[in-house]
Amino acid sequence: MADKRDYYEVLGVAKGASDDEIKKAYRKAAKACHPDLHPDDKEAEARFKEVNEAYEVLSDPQKRARYDQFGFNDPTMGGAGGAGGFSGFGGFEDIFDMFTGGGFGGGRSSSRQNAPQRGSDLQYNLTLTFEEAAFGCRKEFKFQRNATCDACGGSGAKPGTQPQTCPTCHGTGQQRVTMNSPFGQVQTMRTCQTCGGKGKTIADRCTKCGGSGVTRVTRTVTLNVPAGVDDGQNFKTIPGEGEPGRNGGPSGDLYITCTVRPHRIFKRDRYDLYCDVPISFTQAALGGDIDVPTLEGTMPYNIPAGTQEGTSFRIRGQGIQQLRSTGKGDLYFTVHVEVPKHLGEKQKDLLRQFEDSLSGREYERRKSFGDQMKSYIRENAERFKEKFDKK
Q1: Largest CA distance in the chain
Q2: What is the SS3 assignment for 65?
Q3: Least confident range of 12-16, 58-62, 114-118, 281-285
Q4: Which of 7-21, 86-100, 230-244 has the lowest mean pLDDT?
Q5: Is there a contact between 254 and 220 (Cβ–Cβ < 8 Å)?
Q6: Which of 127, 140, 168, 381 could be joined to 194 by an S-S link, Cβ 3.0–4.6 Å?
Q7: What's the chain's Rg over C-alpha atoms?
Q8: What is the rounded (10 degree) CA torsion for 138, 140, 146, 148?
Q9: Percentage of the chain with pLDDT > 90?
Q10: In the structure, what pLDDT confidence band is assigned to residue 36 with cuts at 50, 70 and 90?
Q11: pLDDT tens digits along 222-239
């Protein structure tokens, strides 16, 4: 179809993309062009419809398989590829459409415009604190969506009246027209210009919805957020809370995605927690109990004597509760040795005495580095001497 973009291109994924990649790309694209974020923006609305159409096909294994094989000329949808000897098209009518600007299969797609259509899915982004995501919580939020007009019941007609069968197409949504083509005069089916393909006309429009059959409503939802949800995760689907269907079709669903605010101490990787803990020079040298932060308060942890800067330790079961499970991740903390900056003369003298009392074996890394330096100087003594003499 000349007026349609490839569904993989619409979602920005490769043809071999996994289901998760397709779902993630759909959420990102739908969020970027959602009508709620771009009111009165016709381009965004058209883009949103395009994204939903692409996802409806690529998220269904059977529809995706047919699309991969036939593209927009799926024989099960009325576009019988190869009919009439034109390989890859839906037959003579598609060839005619190509010359008259109707696009491939335009007549057949319009015949389904007045059929029941499922409403679009919606996505709501719920913001949570780090603790709310870790422990779970009960949240209430409000969002806006379209709903079937309660005044006219979705018909678009003024209460007490009913839409009438279109006199032009007699309810089919199509009208036959005669046009000139390179093959002479031919007849083809086009979307009815009187009813726009709906098969019905409205004489007196509903004053509440203006004839659209839908109104904007604010919905309040209360839900239980399970412990362990992570940033960007789609953790809840509420059936029927999406956009209303058309022509008696079912409503779409509402997908709940969460955004988790960062924590001032902890970083998260799946169900494990990470943090940094400062310790004093004395604690690092002598070892002993230090206070380690957890999500439920502090707990003592005994570090060994001679702990070096940047050493990491693990505390099992002090991470995040696994989603819909009783298991927990682990807590990893890294110690950072603080060297005192402001020392008095007495403290400096004590440190010098302490340093002088050491045999040197206590500093293994410094001794190893010193030995390497001596070897390096010996091996390059001639080159160093030559440079020195030139100066």
Answers
A1: 110
A2: helix
A3: 114-118
A4: 86-100
A5: no
A6: 168
A7: 35
A8: 80
A9: 38
A10: low
A11: 999 999 999 988 888 899
What is the rounded distance in angstroms from the CA atom of residue 84 to the CA atom of residue 3? 23
Q: Where are the domains of the chain?
A: 127-154+210-261, 267-338, 345-390
Residue 257: beta bridge partners?
125, 234
**Distance from C-alpha of 35 to C-alpha of 18, rounded to nearest angstrom:** 27
Residue 105 pLDDT grade (very low, low, confident, very high; cuts 50, 70, 90): very low
Can you name the CATH fold of 127-154+210-261? HSP40/DNAj peptide-binding domain (2.60.260)
In one-letter notation, the amino acid at residue 254 is: L
One-letter amino acid identity for 46?
A: A
Is 317 in contact with 307 (CB distance < 8 Å)?
no
pTM listed for this prediction? 0.57
Beta bridge partners of 217: 145
CATH architecture, range 267-338 = Sandwich (2.60)
* CB distance 98 to 231 below 8 Å: no
- 53: Cβ–Cβ under 8 A, 6 or more apart, which residues? 7, 10
